[in-house]
Amino acid sequence: MARPSNQESIHPLKLFDIAKNEKRLLYTSAPMVRYSKLAFRQTVHHYGTDLCWTPMILAKEFNRNKFARDSDFTISTAGPQPPTIVQFGANVPQELARASSLVAPFASGVDLNCGCPQSWACSSTLGAALMEKRELVRDMVIETRERLQQDGWDVGLEKDMNNPKGRSVSIKIRVHKDLRKTIDFITTLLAPCPTTSSRPVDFLTIHPRTRQTPSSAPINVEALSILTSTFGDQVPILLSGDVFTLDSLPFTSPIHTFTSSSSSSSSSSSPSQQQAPSDITALVQHDIPKLSGLMSARALLANPALFSGRNSCPWEAVEFFLNKTIKAPMPFKLVLHHISEMCSPGMGPDPRDRSALLNKQERAELMRCGDMIELIDFLEEKKPGGLERTI
């Protein structure tokens, strides 16, 4: 983990502030196991994602094993290094604090995973299991903040957001079936630290599904509305879940308006001419004025250009990703999966969002490529006009 050359970290709260001044929501990419690697983070950042998460890293193994550190956390020494949050899975304050200390020189902040619903994580009191351990979670973030401060990093929340040594501490949560428990959880987490009289976390990401709710079920927009109304003035809040296109969100916000539903972001229509399709408008149920940002996972995997306003993946995003993958290699099977996702139909509800770069038969052929040379040759043949020669 060599220090990036000639690059300074930007504080996540500064990014929230920039987005607010631009009268829009902050755009972030979710921590995706196996897929939130450096080349992918660089790609989504190029297409408008403000802040990127690493995959969840197990703090205990990260602290003890050099090979885990080298494989789990890859950074760019030549640029661009997207503003990056390192997410950890932990259940011991000292483990989270130590792991955070190790990555602080190379990241914008650290994040505690309190949302992973997988059984292996919950059986180890990680992820969503921590939603029943609010005091432990508070102890972990407080000790982490204190450790970073001892190491010389500035963790004074908004006071340090313009400081090049400023770092953030945040958490990502799910909701309880009884929302009162979630309110109690967040209230405990936001209670001022005894030593600093400030909140222990810089910002909060809420995935409004319970641990048992499948991803195929819609998010609980009512729960999101209640939680942002209750806590949105105290802490910036990101939404994770069901962010498929920017013009199909199931709520409204004074800093987010519907964009054109076309797949191209180069439309010359003025904002007053851009309208959402009637079926999308029907999805809108709540006004959520205190939401600060959006986090996407599956939709960004299928369309890294999501936050540039495109509703399906353009060929140039595929090419950009291939270039970054060659410079920041990952296992070929992961590359193949990424390309397959990008060449599949978009995830928006409008039929115009469902265009695909390759049809089903072509995607099956794609998966039979055995190495990068075969993959590049295959895409060279399929893309109209061929690939850019920068690859």
Question: What is the N-to-C succession of helices and strands?
Answer: HEHEEHHEHEHHEHEHEEHEEHHHHH
Q: In this structure, how is the largest beta sheet organized?
A: 8 strands, parallel, barrel
Poorly predicted sequence stretches spanning 5 or more consecutive residues: 1-7, 258-284
Mean pLDDT: 87
Largest beta sheet: strand ordering: 1-2-4-5-6-7-8-11
By CATH reckoning, the class of the largest domain would read Alpha Beta
Reported by name, the CATH topology of the largest domain is: TIM Barrel
How helix-rich are the residues, as a percent range? Answer: 25-40%
Overall geometric form: globular
Name the structural class: alpha/beta
State which percent range the strand residues make up: 5-15%
Query: How many β strands by DSSP?
Result: 11
Count of DSSP H/I helices: 15
According to CATH, the homologous superfamily of the largest domain is Aldolase class I
Query: Whole-Å distance between the termini?
Result: 26 Å
Second rung of CATH, namely the architecture of the largest domain: Alpha-Beta Barrel
Radius of gyration: 21 Å
Number of domains: 2
